[in-house]
Amino acid sequence: MSRTRTSRFGERRRIPPQWLARALSIYPPLLGAGIRVVEFSDDWTVCRTRLRLTRWNRNQQGTAFGGSIGSMSDAFFAILLMNQLGPGYYVWDAKAEIDYRSPGTSTVYGRFEVPRETAEAIRAKAESGSKVLQWFETDLLLRDGTVVAHVRRQVYIRKKPEGR
Q: Given this model, what pLDDT does residue 15 score?
């Protein structure tokens, strides 16, 4: 899913954070998994998601399906980073590690953060045009703070050739 649109005049326009949150919340893969993007911060440093437990995303034990829990973290670090770095960079998810720690017995919450300082350090590393592989981590939680899963995502970043 693209974060920018091309107008009929060819310039690229950014989609405001809350528009992207709404669009992703109805994006079929996330919608089907029961995932809602609650918020992207105005400065693209934080994203919050929610997985409500429904009959469509329960497993045979009645808890949240692991695939839905894993999907809660798919691409959000990359989206935050690509919006901070701008259109001159390739930014993709490269790897994921998910450590399931307890059953998702109710709504699961995710919070993803890419601080400005981290984005600027990555920008400096990518300046030469070489690839940068950066790990990000977060916990997916129940309302009471119980950790349902610990997620690590590796993001690939590289400056586009026309900007090198």
A: 87
